[in-house]
What we know:
Layout lengths: L5 E5 L14 E5 L3 E5 L3 H22 L9 E6 L2 H5 L7 E7 L4 E6 L7 H14 L6 H11 L3 E2 L4 E4 L3 H9 L5 H5 L7 H16 L1 H4 L2 H9 L4 H9 L3 H14 L3 E4 L10 E5 L1 H14 L3 H14 L4 H13 L3 H13 L5 H13 L5 H10 L4 H13 L3 H10 L8 H14 L3 H13 L4 H15 E8 L2 E8 L14 E13 L4 E7 L2 E6 L7 E3 L11 E13 L4 E7 L1
Parallel strand pairs: 3-4, 4-6, 16-18
Antiparallel strand pairs: 1-5, 2-3, 2-10, 5-6, 7-8, 8-9, 11-12, 13-14, 13-17, 14-15, 17-18
Zinc ion binds next to β1, α3 and α4.
InterPro entries: TPR-like_helical_dom_sf (IPR011990)
Amino acid sequence: MRAIRLCAILAWVGSVSYAREPATWTAARAQHFEVYSDAAPETARSLAAGLERLHEFIVRQIGLTPAPDRRVRVIAFASAGEYARYRGNPAAGAYFVGTGDRDYIVLPAPAGTGLRFAAHEYAHVLMHSGAWKLPCWIAEGVSDVVSTVQFRDRESRIGGDLTERSAALKAARWMPLEEIFACKSVSDSLFYAESWAVTDLLMFSPPYGARFPALLAALASGVGSERALREVYGVPVAVVERDLRARLARGAPAVPLPPVPGAAAEVHVAGLTTFEARALLADLRFANGELEVAESLYGELARERPSDPEIHAALGTVALRRGNIAGAAAAWKLAIDLGITDAALCYRYAVLADERGLPARAALERAIALRADFDDARFKLALMEKNGGHPEAAIAQLRAMREVAPARAFTWWSALADALLSLDRRVEAKQAAVEARTHAGSSEERDHAGQLEWLAATELAIEVDGGNVRAVRVPAGAARNPFIAAGDRPRRVEGALREVKCGDGTIRLVVDTADGRLSLDVPNPSRVEIRNGAAAAFEFTCGLQEARKVVVEYAATSLVLRGLELR
Length: 567
Ligand SMILES: [Zn+2]
């Protein structure tokens, strides 16, 4: 939701007129774009088809790829006046704005099938969504070059003259290229013209073109422009400028490339209701950062349709951006209660609710129901289940995740180990703890994994020492009989129970062992550990026994019985 960035293409300035809200909007939805326009329905359709073709070209020929599952929303206003009401920079002939959720390209509806402004902005969208941190001159230059794409039946073309740019270069004294590279004077049309011309030279002119990807990589990694040119091409700025002037004087033709089929894109066209169109424009106000205007527009819509979950979701998003966290939580909760089908919003609400100590589980469950592969939601729910004492549910969520990103591998494995431990599944818990240790990123994490391993390898036992009872951890599977006292010198032997002698308040067991007959006192039957008994309680029956197989544990020092295992 942050990272709003505006980029303007300097072109003509349309006349501003505050026309009434247009009545009919059309949506044209294709694989990578949803184009909305209040111009003729054909405008939206042909723009969507043209952009799909451009997308195909850019992916194939330039290697810029968009973020997956992210459709670009394009809004093409029928009139320049309407467009002018939505642009921040009065000199911008088109602009793109990215929010956390969505990228927008906003422009006046192009005349005919012209893609130029849309193409320029789409190049920005791709660089932005690919998180390329490029200096603004090369971002503008690449966008301008992309805007020159032409599609023909047997070939596509890119490059060649951009007449108003080259005219600007002929008419004025150039800014020094060092100033262009420093991105000074970005509101000057000469800045755009020079940025375009240098980029065109670097992309297509024989001595430079082949190493252009290396230049882009260097610039994206933060190397300064002049240094990058020197390192990649081995030339100083003065040589670049000399070559640039020569290229402009010669004129460089467009570069022919293989054709991109035009009819391939599937475009679905549908009309928008007035309500939907108003929501669309409120969304755009929000994307532009006009939070108060957006809030008031959404407010009007919510009053008209109080049960529309999308509008409440939008109100919550605006509230959050305005710092009203309680308001955001309340609006999102309402959107969820009204049945919103936006998994990401359910998840965002759960995170916010959890931070505020509100119930978050239902929202996470909804997010997962809406999107089974929503790993973030499953991970959060798993941790919540584990901490809430539901280890089985936690394990189920952890194991249902599609992948575990390296950054959360330690937490994933240690949560799994922890949950398995709660279920006494020690062998699996130990394996998970060992995995957690291999993913530990700090000494604290390594210690924690070590602790889990130790817990998996040991179990809690009660030790009685005189009058003191304390809990100790002993190796798993070798739990100590809690009734064994200090100084007992405990012994364990197998034998056959012969007789239980009951006297005046005394009980004595007689057991035949391989080493002879043993007589063991039972001063207090409730202080004998019984194992494998069919019932939780065990009763001694006085008298002769049927040579029942037993294991007895006793104090060798006092011949007092401490444990009895029935075989
Ligand atoms: Zn631009």
